[in-house]
């Protein structure tokens, strides 16, 4: 029998996560509304609840239990040996020890060194251990309660990940700071900044739109479709490192670079929805905060333009900021 948690369970968790996100998305009255932490007074999504408590083949094992063991939820005797899947699972009580349960690790594809561990893999590992401990060390197991807890765990993990601090790796040591703060120096800086931003590739459907469309259609968007935008953010950040920055604008410039890095991290997480839907949905949940974060450095740039009475020609990169002046009033 396949040891758990099997990759089928990852698929099951993926399905639950997508249903959770789709249910929230379709019922949200706003274009983007963040998910809130689950409370006892909040109705749980009916679709996820039904799937979490389903026993398709009627063998006494819920579908999610069968996916934990790598069995087929549609077949009461997956291996065709005449012994029901439920009986085979019960037989494991004699072969599994608490030590072997504690050593369970998720059967997921390994990620590269710069990838964070999959939240789906972590949930699968923790849930698998809890399940086994209850299955073989107590007189009975409340599978309905575990089903409900699984949905709640997914939802709360999304909320927790959404509130996790994002790294802000850039500081003054990463940029070129000049002492001059004249209007001429500011004009040169803002033009250079505008040119760098406008060099970002024009993408008809950015990562947020792609992910939103995926939710509305209940489809997974190919990771390749996010590549151009991700590369664009990294290229932009490298360009910002090379622009001479007047001392008075150093903090603003650093904040802008870190915000672009945060946007990169959001889109990167969205692009990994196929392997880690929990982190992807958390990133989508986080996006409004990151978008609002960008308003602070943008406002400082507009203030500098107004206070120094800077003007731009049609060819100047700084012209891109002029349209935001009215929003600053």
From TrEMBL:
The chain crosses the membrane at residues 9-26. It comes from Candidatus Ryanbacteria bacterium CG10_big_fil_rev_8_21_14_0_10_43_42. It comes from the Bacteria. It holds the Pfam family TSP3_bac. InterPro entries: Ca-binding_acidic-repeat, TSP3_bac, TSP_type-3_rpt. Keywords: Calcium, Membrane, Secreted, Signal, Transmembrane, Transmembrane helix. One of its GO terms (molecular function) is calcium ion binding. Its main location: secreted. Gene3D superfamilies: TSP type-3 repeat (4.10.1080.10). Residues 35-54 are annotated as: Disordered. Residues 42-54 have a biased composition (Basic and acidic residues). This is EF-hand domain-containing protein. It is found in: Secreted.
